[in-house]
Specification:
heterotetramer, A mainly alpha, B alpha/beta, C alpha/beta, D mainly alpha, B: Rossmann fold, two-stranded parallel ribbon, 14 strands, about 45% helix, globular, C: alpha/beta, 2 domains, 10 strands, disordered N terminus
């Protein structure tokens, strides 16, 4: 039986690690949906934009260099870039600023609109961000290296003969830190409580004495941070390029499974999807022609929802009239 | 809104109604945006710079300047159609669609419009059968040539035989990626290796299970028909499971610097099949430097000069220029029509001497297109990546494919197409 | 007025018990509704009145007890099947189709009367068209009856509360039900609106002879329009009879004065 | 001044429920149709046909289909691309399997096949709601594309999985293949769009349409009124998928002539069509078409302006255009959350009251 198969455990582990990567992306969705009921289509592009910005600062690219070249300025880089840590801080700053702009320009005028409208607005946002990101930093692939360990971890390799990429281990650690700190934040700070309040009821939040705008600003900034982390983790694997924005698709089945409003849901959902699709692809895939991961993730989530429409951590829905 | 639509349509119309100029009009259906932009940009830059160089240096071909019409497809078929229709009206001589999807879409259309297509090492492989595909050219080589040449290289590494060996194909799960399967299957029958198929879905950022599959099956070789981000991820995954990189051989679309650089030092030794010699030490490059870049007219951001795909773009443009010249010779006309261009392509002959004159000394294989064979010689060489110096270098000469296997396949597919669309060969 | 009292039972519920997980919403409640009467169900909030209506029109399925309609014991049925049996209702907090006009809302009320198939709908020929206009006439009658001609084409979401209540009544009436369930039809209305609504209910009952069962808090109204009253408290039936009998029922008085239950 | 009911009183419910309640509307509409049918075909060039009209017509049909499901029945779906693929491959098999079958029948049968598949994938909607359903429909999107990429029978065992449309005719006039006359395909698609718009209109003014809207607005109340949610939702899925299947078939056979599932019917198709109906107007026939025009024609418009006139490099033009369109989407949503079509309505209102607003 495949439990004796040495690969079973390896695929299990790499499934879990992949799941963490998915969860990282899903987290951004959850934060925003929880606080403002918005299904943020732009989350993937946000990650791309964040990663592009980071690389831009790191390598000292000149923003809009390509655009400027229309006016005869052919330089593409400043003399030097910033050290990684500074670049990270700057990128975070950019994300916070971006969050503020989004709230002011897009969300404020759309307060109290139906979900589908806000969803559509974030699609417009995605378009804008994608275009601006490419105009600012160019559409070619960029290496992203912030000095995280890479390559197979020798220790594990020698001990168990399993290839586990250090990068993914560090991604897992980062994700865990992120989730823990988010949970603490929302549990033990006034702001965090306000966030949870706004999730339940906008009026309640106002009574806590924090304006809705501020709360949204913070939420979008935080999910901007999450996007940055996700962007870095995925970008380090594959280089930073347009495709990075497509990782959002990997997060959707996770959201179905974990529920749009539950942070632990996002994590557990991510792990289930990661392991599930890997096992299926590895054992069943070859029999039916492979490349099953994309749809299997959704089928898994779908089957699950058929039995638990409220998702993993949602409470049972009692319909009343 | 209705008014607005009309405005849009009106503008669209004007956009398409620019009168055909006296120049040689060549549309460039490039993709500088979208998921595959990293591959599209250098290619488009290469084409553009070379054409600009020809115009600047020789004032065009036979005194007639070339007018390059760039049109953004984003590697998307619908946009490709729009580009085709909008440039067709302007006297386009030839199309190189730069996308398998768009090529398939254009083959019947362009043939009906009597405009030749040159799909250089992509598109429909069986179009090498010129007798059936009168207007489609895919020299210098097809995917099936590439597959066979790669297998040849593996055999050389194994001392002549792949008997009992295992070869894995990691491919982009699309029409493009599926191209080599038939050939590899045929060859496996002939050479007795076991073929392992590992599809990867677009975009391909997640390939864990694919490479675990590789570890489980322990193939002796892996070859890859990858595209876009899939290449980078595959190469770094292969490296991180410590697959011997010199036994990992990609097709020419998995052969650019973009693909290996993100994997860093781990990618050292990765191989791929090449259409031309890497590097910039050629007359043509010097001319481009002199007439285009130094003049400040570099295409795009000007940061792609010398990359593999840039050189391939140059090569593509060089073919076009030479084809125009040939057409002019045949028809004795300076100003040529798409029909004449087709003849030019069909009679294109470039030997090394001619290449050297053109400033491509010892750069690529000789070209010999005939009415029956639009696939040219079908030669390719193997290039290898040196991560320390971040350079590619050829490690073999340009060798030919296993013709009797490949030609049989081409014959089969082409005749099927001919039957479907009742085409009787146009060659006597 | 007098002779309708003699009529036979149209609806009877026997020992209904309904639980949500641990909570017991209704406990062994029984009562009947006579054909052609106006039957009121009263009781404090949370007494299980709305739940009882939900049981009657099949939205909730009680764990114990029987529902008899038209002299037949009713098996487990889906709400839409029960609608076809001729039970219509309105809701405590308005459940109109907000995106649709008054007319369309009430037309939707005719759903059970419209049978034309997909094909004839697609080509809008024959049955589909004919049926549409026949039902439109019926609906126009309801509209005239409720005096809402002017808001025929208005999106109901835009209507004031009182009118919405009225449209909802219209939607229920359009179904020409045998039994009409009204869940607090006058909640949140001012005196005039209440008077209008009471008048409509009585007219419905008298002109169309429709049996009405309604939940209402305003005892005054109940006294005026109800023929018989059921009183519920904490999911139990604590009194049943004519309005006069009810007001003199000690249990009921306790329940309303909120005497502690022990 | 002239645009008002004055003079045309409604004497019957027929006229009151007619498609165009105002005589002037009627005249305008039929006038436009007349021009589109009898004038345009004489001037339509291949560029207009292939780059403007066909995409506009075909996406309009798809948008109508999705609007029935999402706009009228309230079931958000992201499976459009997959269903278009079903239509495309069904038509391909029919065209190659039964060579002398009339193209109109091919298209309709393709729609029928898609309707069946649609019902199948619509089943989850009975338990799953809202965004969860939207994401759930992605399962069908990805699965169908994967299937047509793998299942060799579906593409007649061609080595790559590319499918090509052979030349077929509608009543003896070629409407597919490389040698079609622009006017032929133009009229063919225009006719189909007209038919399907008319069908949509008929469905949504009858009780089936009302049952959809009832489910959309308040499913519980709808059920208590007598609407069987199973029937309502699945019928919506069936009709919607039929439309989308037809669109997919036209997309492959008449417009592009070649297709490959992973590229032509990828996830972004599903999103594009959803954008169309939201931008254009949920639950509106005109809105579906306006939306299609917005998403399909606007990029071409920008491209021709930025590249054609301003001579900006294609990539910069592309990015700028993306930004423009995104900004426009946001702008429209802020100004008019109910879609561009709502502008049209208010405009008509104003016109009707002009010059006496009160």
């Amino acid at each position: 039986m495949f439990f004796l198969d040495p690969f079973f455990y390896e695929i299990l582990i790499s499934g879990l690690l992949a799941g963490v990567m998915y969860a990282l992306v899903a987290l951004g969705f959850v934060l925003i949906f929880k606080a403002s009921g918005i299904f943020n289509f732009a989350q993937g592009v946000l990650a791309l934009f964040a990663a592009l910005t980071l690389v831009g600062f790191q390598t000292g690219q000149i923003p809009f260099a390509h655009l400027l070249s229309l006016f005869g300025l052919h330089a593409t880089h400043w003399g030097a870039g910033f050290p990684t840590i500074v670049a990270l801080l700057f990128s975070l700053g950019v994300m916070v600023l971006l969050a503020w702009l989004i709230v002011q320009i897009v969300l404020k005028p759309l307060v109290n609109q139906e979900g589908i409208i806000l969803f559509m607005a974030t699609i417009g946002l995605a378009y804008v961000l994608e275009g601006v990101g490419d105009l600012m930093w160019g559409a070619n692939v960029k290496e992203l290296n912030i000095g995280l360990p890479e390559g197979p971890s020798e220790i594990i390799l020698d001990a168990t003969d399993m290839f586990i990429d250090k990068l993914e281990i560090s991604a897992a650690i980062v994700a865990i830190v992120l989730v823990v700190s988010l949970t603490l934040f929302s549990q033990y700070t006034k702001m965090g409580r306000a966030l949870r309040a706004v999730a339940d009821d906008h009026q309640a939040a106002l009574s806590v004495g924090i304006s809705l705008e501020t709360i949204w600003w913070i939420v979008w900034s935080v999910s901007g941070l999450v996007a940055l982390v996700a962007g870095v983790m995925w970008g380090a694997k594959s280089g930073v390029q347009f495709s990075l924005s497509l990782i959002a698709l990997k997060a959707l089945p996770v959201l179905m499974l974990g529920g749009f409003t539950s942070i632990p849901g996002a994590i557990v959902g991510g792990l289930i999807i990661g392991v599930g699709e890997k096992l299926f692809e590895f054992y069943i895939g070859p029999l039916i022609g492979g490349a099953t991961e994309n749809w299997f993730a959704y089928m898994l989530a779908l089957l699950f929802l058929l039995f638990r429409p409220q998702g993993l951590f949602g409470e049972k829905i009692i319909e009343r009239v | 809104m209705k008014k607005f639509t009309l405005a849009a349509v009106a503008a669209a119309l004007v956009g398409s109604m620019v009168p055909a100029s006296a120049d040689h009009t060549i549309p460039l259906l490039s993709y500088r945006t979208g998921p595959y932009a990293p591959n599209g940009i250098p290619y488009a830059d290469g084409v553009t710079d070379y054409i600009n160089m020809i115009n600047a240096r020789d004032g065009g071909v036979g005194g007639v300047p070339i007018n390059l019409l760039e049109c953004e497809t984003g590697y998307n078929t619908e946009r490709g159609v729009e580009c085709y229709e909008s440039t067709k009206g302007q006297g386009a001589l030839v199309y190189f669609p730069l996308s398998t999807g768009i090529t398939y879409q254009l083959i019947p259309k362009a043939t009906a419009d009597d405009i030749p297509i040159h799909s250089m090492g992509y598109g429909r492989t069986s179009a090498a059968d010129g007798n059936t595909f009168s207007h489609v050219f895919n020299f210098p080589g097809t995917y099936w040539d590439a597959a066979s040449i790669i297998i040849k290289h593996m055999m050389d590494m194994e001392g002549g035989s792949l008997e009992g060996k295992k070869v894995a194909l990691v491919y982009h799960n699309s029409a493009y990626g599926k191209e080599p399967i038939r050939t590899l299957e045929e060859l496996s029958k002939k050479h007795g290796y076991e073929l392992l198929l590992l599809p990867v879905d677009h975009p391909g950022q997640e390939q864990k299970s694919t490479w675990l599959q590789v570890r489980k099956e322990k193939p002796d070789f892996v070859t890859m028909w990858g595209w876009g981000v899939m290449n980078q991820v595959a190469i770094s995954e292969a490296a991180s499971i410590r697959f011997p990189m010199d036994r990992f051989i990609g097709v020419w679309w998995s052969a650019s610097e973009n693909d290996v650089l993100p994997a860093g030092a781990k990618s050292d030794g990765y191989k791929a099949i090449a259409m031309n010699r890497p590097g910039t030490d050629f007359g043509a490059y010097r001319d481009i430097q002199k007439h285009v870049i130094d003049a400040g007219n570099a295409a795009g951001a000007g940061d792609q000069v010398g990359t593999i795909l840039y050189s391939r773009g140059m090569l593509n443009a060089a073919y076009m220029v030479e084809a125009i010249r040939t057409a002019q010779k045949i028809h004795g006309a300076g100003d040529i029509t798409p029909g004449m261009m087709r003849d030019g392509l069909e009679n294109l002959k470039i030997d090394q001497a001619r290449w050297t004159e053109m400033g491509f000394d010892n750069f690529t294989s000789t070209i010999d297109v005939t009415c029956e064979n639009h696939g040219g010689p079908g030669l390719g060489a193997i290039q290898q990546w040196d991560a320390s110096s971040k350079t590619w270098s050829l490690i073999t000469d340009f060798v030919g494919a296993d013709r009797d296997v490949v030609d049989a396949l081409i014959e089969a597919d082409a005749s099927a197409y001919a039957a479907e669309n009742n085409i009787s060969g146009h060659c006597k | 007025m007098e002779e309708k009292k003699k009529n036979n039972t149209i609806m009877e519920v026997k020992d209904i018990t309904l639980r949500f997980g641990g909570v017991t919403a209704i406990e062994g409640v029984s009562f009947d509704i006579l054909e052609g009467e106006v039957r009121a169900i009263i009781g404090p909030n949370g007494a299980g009145k709305s739940s009882m209506l939900n049981v009657i029109n099949g939205f909730y399925h009680p764990q114990e007890g029987e529902v008899w309609f038209n002299g037949q014991k009713r098996g487990a049925m889906k709400p839409y099947q029960i609608a076809y049996q001729g039970i219509a209702r309105t809701f405590q907090n308005i459940a109109l189709f907000k995106g649709m006009s008054t007319l369309d809302n009430i037309m939707t009320g005719r759903f059970t009367h419209m049978k034309s198939g997909m094909i004839s709908q697609v080509f809008w020929k024959g049955k589909a068209e004919k049926e549409e206009y026949e039902n439109r006439e019926a609906v126009e009658k309801v509209i005239d009856f409720l005096e809402i001609q002017t808001i025929r084409k208005t999106e109901v979401g835009k209507l004031p509360y009182g009118l919405q209540k009225r449209v909802e009544l219209g939607r229920a009436l359009a179904a020409e039900p045998k039994l009409l369930l009204l869940d607090e039809p006058m909640a949140g209305m001012n005196v005039e609106e209440k008077e209008d609504m009471s008048r409509f209910i009585l007219d419905v009952n008298e002109e169309f002879g429709t049996t009405v069962a309604l939940i209402e808090h305003d005892m005054g109204v109940v006294m005026d329009i109800a023929d018989r009253v059921v009183v519920m408290d904490y999911g139990k039936n604590i009194g049943d009879g004519t309005p006069k009998e009810i007001v003199s029922n000690q249990k009921v008085i306790d329940a309303y004065l909120g005497v502690s239950h022990d | 001044m002239f645009y008002r009911e004055a003079g045309d009183f409604k004497t019957s419910y027929q006229s009151d429920q007619a498609t165009f309640t105002l005589r002037l509307d009627k005249i305008l509409f039929w006038g436009l149709m007349a021009i589109a049918t009898f004038v345009v075909p004489f001037f339509v060039t291949e560029y207009w046909e292939k780059s403007v009209f066909l995409p506009f017509f075909i996406y309009s049909i798809a948008a109508l289909g999705l609007n029935i499901l999402t706009g009228y029945c309230g079931q958000v779906s992201l499976g459009t691309g997959g269903f278009m693929a079903v239509g495309a491959y069904a038509s391909f098999k029919l065209m190659t399997g039964i060579p002398n079958l009339d193209m109109f029948l091919v298209i309709m049968l393709a729609g029928l096949v898609t309707a069946l598949v649609g019902v199948l994938f619509g089943l989850p909607s009975l338990r799953i709601k809202g965004f969860y359903l939207a994401v759930a429909t992605l399962a069908s999107q990805f699965f169908l594309v994967w299937l047509f990429n793998k299942w060799e029978w579906s593409y007649n065992y061609s080595p790559t999985g590319q499918i090509n449309a052979p030349t077929r005719d509608f009543l003896g006039i070629d409407v597919t293949g490389p040698t079609t006359a622009p006017w032929a395909t133009y009229l063919f698609c225009l006719g189909l769009l007209f038919i399907f718009a008319w069908i949509t209109r008929n469905l949504v003014r009858g009780h089936i349409g009302r049952s959809w809207m009832a489910i959309r607005d308040m499913d519980i109340a709808a059920e208590i009124i007598g609407v069987n949610p199973l029937v309502a939702k699945l019928s919506a899925f069936a009709v919607s998928s039929f439309f989308i299947g037809v669109a997919g078939a036209l997309y492959f056979s008449v417009w592009l002539g070649a297709a490959e599932p992973t590229e032509a019917f990828a996830i972004d198709k599903s999103f594009d069509v959803l954008f169309m109906i939201i931008i254009g107007g949920l639950g509106s026939i005109l809105g579906s078409m306006i939306g299609a025009a917005f998403i399909i024609l606007l990029p071409i418009f920008f491209k021709n302006v930025l590249v054609g006139y301003c001579g900006i490099p294609t990539d910069i033009a592309e990015f700028t255009q993306i930004v423009f369109i995104g900004a426009l989407i946001i702008f429209f949503l802020i100004k008019e959350p109910h879609g561009i079509v709502a502008y049209w309505r208010t405009l008509k209102e104003k016109l009707r009251l002009w010059p006496f607003p009160y």
